[in-house]
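Entry for the shared binder. Reason: the reviewer on the internal report wants the predicted structure included alongside the sequence.
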Amino acid sequence: MNKLRLFFLLRKNTKLSEKRNPMFEANQYGKLFGYIGIAIVAIEFIAIGTFMGWIAAKDDEAQILFFVLPFLMIVDFFMRFMTQQTPLMLVKPYLLTPISKYTAIECFLTSQILDTGNLFWMTIFLPYTFIVWCGGMTTWAALGMLLLFHLIVVVNSQWYLLVRTLINQSMWWWALPTIFYGSLILPMFLLPDKILDKIFDGIGDFVGDNAFSWWTFALFVLLFVVLFAINRNLQMRLIYNEISKNEKTKLKHVSEFQALNRFGQIGEYLKLEIKSTMRNKAIRSRFIQGVCIIMLFSLIIAFGSVYNSSFERNFWCLYAFIFFGSVNLIKVMCPEGNFIDMLMVHEENILTLLRAKYYFYCAMLILPFLFCLIPVFAGKYSILMVLAYMLTATGPVYCMLFQMAVYNKTTLPLNDKITGKNQMENKWQAIVSMIGFFAPVALVMLMQAIFSEEVAYLVLILIGLAFTLSEPYWMRNIYRRMMKRRYDNLEGFHATR
């Protein structure tokens, strides 16, 4: 079997495995909301590409897009963390077949290169190229520029795959993109304006002279080949380790968290939440990524000129407080699906576990509160706004997220990172996430238009306090409804382990 036939066979098998997944139908709800969001962003990108194309055609400077392309690729890199996992390498059955293991890896890597997600940036490139072509650029030059743009996106996808794979192994690898992108961005904030002007003038002259030269294509082709080869070898080694579960174990001191003993059974479940966050790859990586994202946006808002509108400031402040809940509590009880049978032994064990989770995630809000103090001191946030959104998270938002304990019935793997997927399991997850992200900000915008900013935040604080103080009542209601569905949920947890 040649590589082309093997590629189509593995691609067909991957699609069939997705359709045979018991949660395939439920995932359609998440995809629907995803498509709506993609359509909105695509419209905005078409407008950006059209606007920049008019400028380039008017000034007869076709290389203008190259000046913003590095920033677009930074956005592309971080967007892939939210939308793209590492390759869906279902290699376990293929390891027992006579086909070349490296050939199988190459086929999966190639399928990622040909993924339609890489064409998303064409919503900017196509209108830009079309308008520049209408402005006088030759057809071959326009096609070559379009091909170069797409080649840069493909190289960026390979760079993302390398970084994402390394980060899945150790969070210390975050230093690699931090140093790389920091060296590009920090000089803009640290260097004097005169030096920056000289640097930008030099970059502008260089790009104007070499943007369409043959060696630019050769450089990016070389980068693609090198990154593809690195990913080929790295993915093969790491997937072998994951499938065979070859992990190095070290004897280490295990903290007993004895200070939590005074809280009885809730204290024991608090220990379980802390240790799960510290030890399990899936939960730990989401926690560390959340800390990095919240800190990054807090610094950008505090010291940058972007996100200065009222809506943007309110949205990112709310985002800081509901991030941990949106990525973890939206799948509440899914990690416990691995051992939920044990939790059913004693009466109200689940209720105690849910309350411990609530207290744990309320305590975790101390981190975003501290990060949000940076924009407060910079004058971008008010302390009233920060308190309002923190109480909104502990109140109505967490109340909605914990409702998912009634409907979630898909076991979440704790340590599978390379071959695992992280999709929406049911329609309610997507709906609750959308409401949690946008409803509080919409309410604040509405009340600000009618009353004032202070009144809006005070109303939000009162609503948050009401939900927070009534936690024992709505948590017990969730527990009772969950118990009515316990056999259906247990069947789902067992089927997806």
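Summary line for the report: Residues 24-59 form the longest helix (36 residues).
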